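Lay summary. Proteins are chains of building blocks that fold into shapes, and those shapes determine what they do. In this project we predict the shape from the chain. Here is one chain we studied, written as its sequence of building blocks.
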Amino acid sequence: MKDKIITLGIESSCDETAAAVVLDGRKLLSNIISTQIPIHQKYGGVVPEIASRKHITAIMPVIDEALNEANVKLEDIDEIAVTYGPGLQGALLVGLSAAKALAFATDKPLIGVNHLEGHIFANFLSESSLEPPFVSLVVSGGHTSLVEVEGYNKFSLMGETRDDAAGEAFDKVARVMGLPYPGGPEIDKLAKNGNPMAIDFPKALRNNGDYDFSFSGLKSAVLNYLNQKKLKKEDVNKADVAASFQEAVVEILTEKAMRAMERRRMNTLVLAGGVAANSALGERLKTEAKKRNYRYISPTVALCTDNAAMIACRGYYQARDGRYSDLYLNAEPGLSLVY
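And here is the predicted shape, written in a compact code that computers can read:
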């Protein structure tokens, strides 16, 4: 086997066009991200058709920039990893088509990567000493899950959201409060000036004994609260609403993560996904893990949101297990973390 493996990662599942080069699965040589946030802000969310068109114009320049920054040529690449789901169909197809074209033209192996697994593997880039087994809490705009990572290529889904994902709830609540897209960071910022105990919002499935989540009722409770205030023509303390809503999300996520750690007798908890950038969630998990002598790991901010470095890292470990893809690989928008 070759001593040094160079993996090119490509990611285009939503509104970030990204490419990265990773050495031996752990050393980041480049990580380029072209964001569409300013474009979609005027619409209050991602418009799939616009996202797809922007990916088309950005994908090859981003790949070229990633190769240049890593100081490698396309012929130096040993394998190409690409997100094939979950995500927006049109957006996924852009990155997937580019990856398949490069793999065919250079005769390099292709590796289709589950975007959600990629989020978990971002932690291997942030913490060089991290090794399985561990429990991972995956919290993003489209998914909220607890996963037992038994090995680099062996996972067990412990629980997931039954309706809205935590990140989706953040964005929807932010939108009705008149905050700009993306809503998650805006809620986090506003909550710092509010009282998290001001409003007692519901925490669904808190005592049901499993690892599933539900945020639809919480989202509705916030909307009802705001509507009632409006009908009564009462002032709304938006900072208190943001802080109380965020507290409800953080509390249930933390409680279930700690329960999973105890029952599975793990000593390492790993946070993953875009909502991993939420300051309140990170601090609460860190504090509760410390109380129990658990090791707590989360990605750097640059690796929390969608990026291609995590895709390259995940692809590297799939390839070591012989899990390659053929050129018939297609996008799977509804791909899940079911094992």
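What the prediction tells us: The two ends are 29 Å apart (CA to CA).
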